[in-house]
Design brief:
Number of helices: 3
Number of strands: 15
Oligomer: single chain
Shape: globular
Structural class: mainly beta
Largest sheet: 7 strands, antiparallel
Distance between the termini: 38 Å
Helix content: under 10%
Length: 355
């Protein structure tokens, strides 16, 4: 494993595929850029939708049912189990956004969650995606939006700590996500921190997430045995996509996160993923997954931690725009199926719900 990937000419050109964006507001646009849940982005050849910055391996598609913890080291996103849906079924699903006090137009993060039964095992699959304007997987010489080492304060007496770039070791150093999982009665059942990435010889790349064990992960409330698996976008980049040579400089890109032809699968978004056994949420059942803050050390903004509150996600009336969140009853919030022939349907309790 080499320390860095040769980038060649620093003036390299990126192939532009002619992205078509259907959105009427900046809010919907930026939300699409980091979740893949609100706005469909397709190239001019009609390829599958993806979220800006998610790479070409499908990581930007909405969270899919039937994806097991064993897929945590697959590239991009996990694939549903063979034979799914079969006797398996989705019980309910939801997408929620979390908002900081200083920005009421763009969410700081989004959580997708699916409660399902697969091969007679009921679990909750949760994916947290952070706004790339706050933190991303660009670093080293190819960091995007992380300031300039030579940048000066805007005012002579500016005492705020200036952002001076982003390095891989900072992602390895302390980044984590803290989640609180409640039952339908509102009681906290599990409370834990997920490690983003650490040095770990157990993984092919020598790096990976430790989940809720060791380093920056850990259980705050509840038993670790209920955590079935965990993954992160950088964990998948390194161990699933085989892009473990990027330990000094991330793949070169631009402000639109155009895929690098040498590493097109690279997911530039910071994403945390976890699978949780549904057993401890009995008898009322799983209720909700929430976060109280988003954290990155460092972040692209003045504060490394933003307190957030749960709220609705951005929506749009455009026909190619889809909000993939469901309410607590499992009914589809979208009304008509705007995605038309692009939808894939499964035989679940969610009648006529595209996934």
């Amino acid at each position: 494993m080499s320390d860095s990937h040769p980038q060649g000419d620093t003036d390299m050109k990126f192939h532009q595929s002619g992205m078509v964006l259907a959105a009427t507001s900046l809010c919907a646009f930026v939300f699409a850029c980091f979740t893949g849940c609100a706005v469909r982005l397709t190239d001019n050849e009609g390829d599958s939708p993806s979220a800006l910055g998610a790479g070409t391996a499908g990581a930007g598609a909405p969270l899919a049912p039937g994806v097991s913890p064993e897929t945590s080291e697959e590239c991009g996103t996990g694939t549903p189990k063979a034979g799914y849906p079969g006797s398996s079924k989705v019980i309910e699903s939801a997408t929620d956004c979390f908002w900081g006090e200083e920005n009421k137009e763009i969410p700081a993060a989004a959580i997708e969650q699916i409660v399902e039964i697969v091969d007679d095992v009921e679990w909750i699959h949760i994916r947290l995606t952070l706004d790339p304007r706050f933190v991303d997987n660009s670093y080293g010489a190819n960091a995007i939006g992380w300031g300039d080492d030579d940048a000066e304060a805007s005012e002579p007496d500016d005492k705020k700590k200036k952002k001076t770039g982003h390095t891989f070791d900072k992602l390895v150093g302390s980044d984590h996500a803290e989640m609180i999982l409640k039952d339908k009665a509102g009681s906290v059942v599990l409370h834990f921190k997920l490690d983003y990435i650490s040095e770990n010889s157990d993984f092919p790349s020598g790096y990976g997430t430790n989940g809720v064990s060791d380093k920056d992960g850990g259980m705050i409330e509840g038993d670790e045995k209920w955590i079935l698996g965990a993954s992160t976008s950088l964990h998948r980049n390194f161990n699933g996509c085989g892009l473990d040579e990027y330990t000094v400089d991330s793949p070169a890109t631009d402000e639109s996160y155009t895929p690098n032809p040498d590493a097109p699968e690279w997911d530039f978004r910071v994403v945390y993923e976890v699978w949780v056994d549904a057993t401890p949420f009995a008898p009322s059942g799983f209720g909700d997954a929430i976060i109280e803050y988003v954290h990155a050390s460092p972040s692209k903004i003045d504060n490394n931690t933003i307190e957030v509150t749960k709220g609705e996600c951005p929506e749009s009336d455009e026909p190619d725009v889809n909000y993939w969140g469901d309410d607590d009853t499992g009914d589809d919030d979208t009304g008509d199926d705007d995605c038309g022939s692009d939808c894939t349907y499964v035989d679940t309790d969610l009648e006529d719900t595209p996934v």
